Amino acid sequence: MGGKRESDQGLAAEAPPHYYGHRERLRERFREAGDEALSDYELLELVLFRALPRRDVKPLAKTLIATFGSFAEVVSAPVARLAEVKGLGDAAITELKLIQAAASRLLRGEVKKRPILSSWSAVLDYCRTAQAFADREQFRVLFLDKRNQLIADELQQVGTVDHTPVYPREVVKRALELSATALILVHNHPSGDPTPSRADIQMTQQIIAVANPLGISVHDHIIVGKEGHASLKGLKLV
Question: Which of 59, 82, 159, 205 has the smallest C-beta neighbourhood within 10 Å, fewest atoms?
Fold first, then answer.
């Protein structure tokens, strides 16, 4: 986001007076009925109000949904792609990325509260929020102790749209450094389809082969995408 970009406020005329009434009605509906009472673009309006207090942001919110597909995909979109949307300046992009960061932190907090294997739905929610909408493959490892509590959550590698280099010995070396006794592997498919590939299965088997002799279990390998998730353990592939 370079210095030549126009400011958020400079790209549109000030909102007409009746729009401020619309804002208050939208806020009131959210306060009384919650987010389920709002469409994706209306929820985006609420986010954009803070960054663009004097603009009618409804057209911008609708453009964002049309461009990226959903509220989740908008807040998860790469900064460079958001910057391509006319009317979306630095302040508004920051608000969107704050929403993404807050969601990730909240879900990570839920994962840390209890043993991971007894809060599996929270783990899946966190993994999807963290990387399901990323535009490049990311390989993440959840390192667990003997009680299956989370020791560390680390993004190990970022690759291309359809490949991430993974080094099994480096994964296990890090587990030993953290005194972890179990791992959950996670990566995303930017295509949206979480179906595991032959390479995904082989890589998982390679990590298991290195980890098992050292007393480190691989509980699962979760693949996430916009269309859902896949568990290699659930599919009996590991």
Answer: 59
As for how many domains the chain has, the answer is 2
Quote the tokens at residue 146: 């003997």
Q: Hey, which bits of the chain come out as E strands?
A: 138-144, 150-158, 182-188, 217-225, 228-231
Domain with 201 in it: 116-231
* Secondary structure letter of residue 54 according to DSSP: T
Mark whether 124 and 224 lie in a shared domain.
yes
Q: Positive or negative CA dihedral for 178, 112, 135, 9?
A: negative
Residue type, 28: E
Q: Which helix (H) or strand (E) holds 172?
A: helix 168-177
Question: Is 186:131 a contact under the CB 8 Å cutoff?
Answer: yes
Do 164 and 121 sit in the same domain of this protein? yes
pLDDT of residue 108: 78
**For position 1, what pLDDT does the model report?**
41
Q: Are residues 143 and 191 in the same domain?
A: yes
